[in-house]
Write a structure and sequence with these properties.
Shape: rod-shaped
Radius of gyration: 33 Å
Number of strands: 12
Structural class: alpha/beta
Strand order of the largest sheet: 4-3-5-12-6
Helix content: 40-55%
Oligomer: single chain
Distance between the termini: 41 Å
């Protein structure tokens, strides 16, 4: 098969032209080289492909059958070349990003907006799931980029910090007032209240669980939510005390809709950023996005 590829090109041009001389000019080789190529292909396939006439050559029945497939193959190659040219001309590509719903809404969106304006022909796929699953899909080469909290070990990723975040506990003033009425003045808020946390698959939840365990805080009742937005809304209507990211509730804190609970031992801040696999070469789509974010790829 491999040794026949050049011969198929010769066969294709001769079949289209119906003339060995015309095909030789198209291929920029000599007529004897074309004739030798046809004889070699016929020998390799053990069939007769052309009937020679005074006006040129005609395809045999076997030659017509072969030409149908070779013609389709040549058209497919031509289409692929045109598509590649269009990709290069328009800067086309495909970027697959993994991110949690919360980080997508609050951190990724501004970068996406700028990227789409500058690279409108690059297709974008957004996969919303926990940071844990994003890292797993990155390792499986099913994603190009992830927006995650910095993992304990960056291997095998390159990680670029874009923002520092702080986990805090918040509640509505009404909920805290009612909790005081029920429990009295000497109250341990986190152990007495309904404590609202993200589900256990979320890396933020694991981080908070470690904090609670280290500080020997045992909640009497835990309510789990799948997204940070749900936690924030639950806090606003007074269901309980929620652990949220401070940077995402600044407006609610400034207007008094939510109140931040003071902690004897504050929760250490975390870094959030873009992560991607270490690789000697990266795609045009990924390098363009990193350029928008003012990040050097390596």
């Amino acid at each position: 098969m491999e040794q026949n590829l050049t011969l198929y090109k010769i066969f294709y041009e001769v079949a289209k032209a119906g003339n060995i001389s015309h095909a030789a000019k198209k291929l920029f080789i000599t007529q004897p080289a074309v004739s030798k190529g046809i004889r070699t292909l016929e020998h390799n396939l053990n069939i007769k492909l052309f009937i020679r006439t005074s006006r040129g050559v005609l395809l045999t029945d076997e030659g017509k059958l072969l030409f149908q497939y070779v013609n389709d193959a040549m058209n497919a190659i031509s289409s692929a070349e045109s598509l590649l040219h269009r990709h290069a001309q328009l800067g086309m590509g495909h970027l697959r990003i993994g991110v949690s719903t919360t980080l997508c809404k609050y951190l990724l969106m501004p970068y996406l907006h700028q990227f789409v304006l500058q690279y409108p022909h690059i297709q974008i796929s957004i996969h919303c799931q926990s940071s844990f699953h994003t890292m797993k899909l990155l390792e499986e080469h099913k994603l190009d980029l992830g927006l995650i909290a910095e993992p304990e070990s960056s291997r095998p990723f390159i990680f670029h910090k874009i923002q520092e975040i702080e986990d805090i506990f918040v509640a509505s003033p009404t909920y805290l007032d009612n909790l005081l009425l029920r429990r009295g003045k000497t109250i341990d808020y986190l152990q007495s209240a309904t404590l609202m946390l993200l589900d256990r698959e979320n890396m933020s939840r694991q981080y908070i669980d470690d904090y609670l365990k280290k500080n020997q805080i045992k909640a009497s009742n835990i309510l789990e939510a799948s997204t940070m937005d749900l936690l924030i809304e639950f806090c606003k209507i007074g269901i309980g005390i929620g652990c949220v990211i401070k940077e995402f509730v600044l407006e609610e804190l400034s207007t008094g809709i939510l109140t931040q609970l003071p902690l004897d031992i504050p929760i250490h801040k975390r870094d959030v950023g873009f992560a991607y696999l270490k690789h000697p070469s990266i795609s045009h789509a990924l390098s363009s996005f990193l350029e928008i974010c003012k990040i050097s790829p390596y």
